[in-house]
Amino acid sequence: MDFLELAKQRCTTRGFTDRQIDKDSLDRILSAGRVAPTACNKQPQRIIVVQKPENILKVQKAYKTFGSKCVLIVCRDRRNELIRPFDGKCSGDLDIGIICDHMMLAARELNIGSVMVGLFDPHIMRKEFDIPEYIEPAALLILGYPSGGFLSKERHSVERKPLSETVMYEKYDEDKKQYRE
How far apart are CA 127 and CA 122, in angstroms? Predict the structure, then answer.
């Protein structure tokens, strides 16, 4: 599949069927996260795969799971982070975003829906899943087969700003009229 077509087909899914994700599909999704680039190849991701019903209930204490039978708790190991010396910015959250994006695209290629969530209570996750202090729960990647299908790939023409509003060339320009066609 053409990459841009795949990217257009990926959408947030907030309703899943009871169908379990098979091991081969899950391994493919996890492998996509494994090969994702990270700053200085530090690979800070630590992923907890949650599929047992009693553990899905633990996740639900921190955030809703939309009926999903598979949640990835995507954590970052804070022991060996790359810190930008100029302002103290840590690469870890960027890395986790890239890793999750790779996994969401891999899921969509397999007709599996996803939603990446950052708005959950990490203290609950830490307690419920015995996560040590140096491991930070950074995101939930909720996966499954969509109960209502996928959104149209054409939605981007109306739901996304045009490049002319978000891309500038050579310098920051508040008027954003530098887009080249």
Answer: 9
Indicate the DSSP class of residue 87: T
Give the separation between CA 59 and CA 71, rounded to whole angstroms: 8
pLDDT tens, position by position, 81-114: 899 999 999 999 999 999 999 999 999 999 999 9
- The pTM score is 0.89
- Distance CA(179)–CA(164), nearest Å, equals 5
Domains of the chain in sequence order: 3-150 (3.40.109.10), 151-181 (no CATH)
The yes-or-no verdict on residue 36 having pLDDT over 70 is yes
Question: Which of 177, 157, 154 is CA-nearest to residue 165?
Answer: 177
95, 42 Cβ separation under 8 angstroms: yes
User: H helices within 110-162, ranges in order?
Assistant: 122-128, 156-159
Nearest CA to 48 out of 144, 130, 133 is that of 130
Give the β-pairing of 70-77 and 135-144: antiparallel
Neighbours of 64 (CB within 10 A): 13
